[in-house]
Amino acid sequence: MLMEASHSQEAALCYAPVSLSLADFSTLLGKVYQGPMEQVPWSKALELIRAHLRANYVTLILRSPASDRPGLMVHASEQGGTTLPGEAMYNNYYYALDPFVGLPADRVVTIDEQLGTGAWCNSDLYQQFLKPLGIRYLLGADIRTDDGVECRFRVCRNADAPDFSEADKAICAVLLPHLRRAVDLHSRMDVVESERTLYASAIDRMLVGMAILDETGAIMRTNSAADEILADKDGIRIARGSLDVEYAQENRQFQRLLRQAIMGHIGTAPAVMEAMSITRPWRTRSWAC
Predict the structure, then answer these.
(1) Any idea of the CA torsion for 24, 26, 31, 34, to the nearest 10 degrees?
(2) Which of 105, 112, 120 lies closest to 165 in space, CA to CA?
(3) 212-260, pLDDT tens digit by residue?
(4) Secondary structure of the chain in the HEC alphabet?
(5) In sequence order, what are the residues at sequence separation of 6 or more whose Cβ sits closer than 8 angstroms to the Cβ of residue 131?
(6) What pLDDT was estimated at residue 1?
């Protein structure tokens, strides 16, 4: 009994609530918003959350597993790394036994609150999957963005730790709106990247030379037909990162059209589409500008 009491006291001291300073909170928010741009999204933010809550795992499920596809998850682990032991087993089978799903949107709850201690500890997921991994306590929230993206945020502690406190839940509740915005940003970035890839692929298949310029006239991208034309340096070429026409009169006209196009793009002048021909002494080749 004395040893058990001593062990309980040590656990209580180890997991005693630690206040989150303004500096620590600012650092954590920075990692949350930096998350969409990391190679493994949110890996740094999840590790900070794990360390502060003294959890053995923190998971962000970006796409829930289903019978026709695996889940997409990011983890922070006390062993290090961004993978969870048994993740493949969860994706293939145990996800269907998970009772900690369909939580109220943007509300932090524990598994014992949601199911009751007895029901949770007797559940197949706990007995067959999580208990052998040393996981006893779960804290979670489901995140739903305005665009319909759904994610699950889960924090795990082992059996030697106490259950999550109200202070632990309060910290996660404060973070939830920021995680939701960051997830929304990640989703929008994925859409933009998909559109960019599709657009770039379409441009590359075109037989007419095309160049994409930024608001200063600098070349951002060219397709293969344009690369061949510019490589000839016959009538038009690249000079200081921009397009330059060989003959002075044509170059003045080209630069004027380019300035008009840029002004139309940024809204300082009406958007007008114009075309011109460029003299190419050594070869006749189509060019769109």
Answers:
(1) -170
(2) 112
(3) 888 888 888 888 888 888 888 888 889 888 888 888 888 899 888 888 8
(4) CHHHHHHHHHHHHHCCCCCCCHHHHHHHHHHHHHHHHCCCCCHHHHHHHHHHHCCCEEEEEEECCECCECCEEEEEECCCCCCCCCHHHHHHCHHHHCCCCCCCECCCEEHHHHHCHHHHHCCHHHHHHHHHHCEEEEEEEEEECCCCCEEEEEEEEECCCCCCCHHHHHHHHHHHHHHHHHHHHHHHHHHHHHHHHHHHHHHHHCCCECEEECCCCEEEEECHHHHHHHHHCCCEEEECCEEEECCHHHHHHHHHHHHHHHHHHHCCCCCCCCCCCCCCCCCCCCECC
(5) 159
(6) 40
Q: Which residue reads 């180890």 in tokens? A: 14
Q: What is the pLDDT of residues 169-223, one digit of tens each?
A: 999 999 999 999 998 888 777 665 665 665 666 666 666 788 888 888 888 888 8
- Domain 2-195: which CATH class? alpha beta
Sequence ranges of the domains in the chain: 2-195, 206-289
Angle (CA) 270-273-277 rounded to 5° is: 140
